[in-house]
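Hey, I was hoping to borrow your eyes for a little while. I'm sending you its amino acid sequence along with the backbone structure tokens. Take your time with it, there's no hurry, and the full record follows here.
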Amino acid sequence: MDQTLNQELAATAARLVVDEGMEYAGAKRKALRTLGRHGGRLSALPSNEQVEDEVREYLALFCADTQPGELGALRALALQWMDRLAEFRPHLTGAVWRGTATRLSAIHLDLYCDDAKSAEIALINHGVDYDVGSRPGPRAQPIDLLSIASHSPTLGETVTLFLSILDHDDLRGALKPDARGRSWRGDAVALRRLLDQESEHA
């Protein structure tokens, strides 16, 4: 793919991620359509790291006064749920973990369960309403994706949480870093460390 077009697609996708709260894959597809490049292969599109770089630049230019507070609120809410779901070894992933989330972003937690239905049973026992969907898993097979609506007092609105139900054995490969050495996800201890760092620089 032409480097200029690749960069333009990454920048367009980044705006969709920030302004519409889209996930990267969907934003890249919509960027293709927006730029009139129908039928492009997703594998030929900018990498998630490229889009993330553009997201960070966009946030710095247009959202520097609001994004840090919104990110902190989402991370605090994520930590509450990680504590509630501690028995399932929750790991935070996505924009809230990577530091690019805004109030439009969903919270993504990976749960590593010995029994795929145990997390659902725990939610039922706690009286938590949830919906069940699916997404591709690490072994090229669909996994359950539970969605929850949770109120954030700090943001004053409802935030969507997505819980990916993974096998306990999947945890071994989950902490591999990206090409730049940054982690794709972190546990509650790592998240608390990030929140402590944010409070120190507030």
Q: What stands out?
A: The CA atoms of residues 68 and 102 lie 8 Å apart. The chain is about 45% helix and 20% strand. The longest strand covers residues 142-152. The mean pLDDT is 90.
